[in-house]
Amino acid sequence: MANSVWVRLSQMKDASELMELDHLVWQRNNTPSVVRWNNREEFMRKCPPGSQLVAGMDDKICGYLGFDHPTPLESNKHVLEINIAVHPGCQRMGIGQKLMEAVKELAAAKGVRKLSLRVLSSNPDAVAFYRKCGFQEQGRLVEEFHLDGQYVDDILMWSPVEQT
């Protein structure tokens, strides 16, 4: 890779680029509900600054990894649920790997013990990427969604967070 990849927490100034990235990445083959933001305010309510790690090269954002606790329960604070998106033109360039490494470091620093995510069975490249990053299947909601004429499983995956 000619350019080095940087990773940092999201900032208010990133909103427009992140909204555009959602528009490019989230399609019927990789999400049961395509993400379309009505306006910047809606995006900022759902994805406030600091709720995502952003990665890029030079001054361009190439991907993000969102993270949050799956529930507001105190007994669930040791888990972070994540979602990741990488610009189609920047895939297979190490962006996703850098984001995964960064979230594992962030999670360990916060005392988080488990990362979890959901991925559709119609997205085998993503499943393979997550496995490469140390995630394993913890459950499967069989035929959970009906997308483009086919039934698709919702695969639940997890990875332990090594405590430092």
UniProtKB/TrEMBL annotation:
A family per Pfam: Acetyltransf_1
CDD domains linked: NAT_SF
Keyword Acyltransferase: yes
Matches recorded under PROSITE patterns: GNAT
InterPro entries reported in the protein's UniProt record: Bact_Acetyltransf, GNAT_dom
Keywords: Acyltransferase, Transferase
Sequence ranges assigned to domain N-acetyltransferase in this UniProt record: 5-162
UniProt feature coiled coil, ranges: none
Domain of life: Bacteria
Protein name per the record: GNAT family N-acetyltransferase
Organism this protein belongs to: Paenibacillus brevis
